[in-house]
Write a structure and sequence with these properties.
Blueprint: H1 2-10, H2 13-23, E1 29-30, H3 31-38, H4 42-54, E2 58-63, E3 66-71, H5 75-84, H6 90-98, E4 104-114, E5 117-124, H7 129-141, E6 145-151, H8 153-161, E7 169-171
Parallel strand pairs: 5-6
Antiparallel strand pairs: 1-3, 2-3, 4-5, 4-7
Helix pairs in contact: 2-3, 2-5, 3-4, 6-7
Length: about 170
């Protein structure tokens, strides 16, 4: 871990920020998208992306007036992905996003938290499912496989009595 920290600190902050964004993305991205997500100006992002393409770390695909950037599949990028890998806490982000939604009485992590995947039970009355789904979709778009189910307290209790929700449960709210 110390080696990773030292190496990432040796690289300038703008380049590190751009690498972090692009190496942790599964999809190709446009220049503006990379600049926005990395909080680096478009001109600096453009210059850095050109350097990374010349170093065969990134691939630039062009058609007509569009250009997208993605990771080159090589040893260099494998090393860099390991160096800049960020574990996404989808559960924590989801709980923070839906914590104040009216009607939610409990948020329960059902089963164990697996790498990049979780099952959540939302217990309550008249839960705004559209808002919950919007938050869940944002988490899924970041590569975290999140499944949730909304139940009333009575439904949850009945299903628990039937043994449908046995196993590990962790109350998050």
């Amino acid at each position: 871990m110390v080696k990773k920290e030292v190496l990432s600190k040796l690289i300038d902050k703008k380049k590190a920020s751009i690498l972090r964004v692009i190496l942790n993305s599964k999809d190709e991205m446009y220049l503006k998208e990379i600049a926005d997500k990395s909080s680096v100006s478009i001109t600096s992002t453009f210059r850095i992306l050109q350097e990374l393409v010349e170093m065969d770390i990134l691939v630039k695909r062009e058609w007509k007036t569009s250009k997208v950037y993605g990771c080159q599949d090589s040893e260099k990028t494998t090393f860099l992905k390991d160096l800049f890998h960020e574990e996404h806490d989808g559960v924590g982000e989801f709980v923070n996003a839906i914590h104040d939604i009216t009607g939610i009485q409990n948020i329960i992590l059902h089963g164990s938290r697996k790498k990049g995947k979780a099952n959540i039970l939302l217990i309550g009355e008249s839960i705004d499912v559209n808002t919950v789904e919007t938050s869940a979709k944002e988490i899924r778009d970041k590569g975290f496989d999140l499944s949730y189910l909304t139940l009333t307290k009575q439904q949850y209790e009945q299903m628990s009595k039937m043994g449908l929700y046995s196993g590990e449960k962790n109350v998050l709210k």
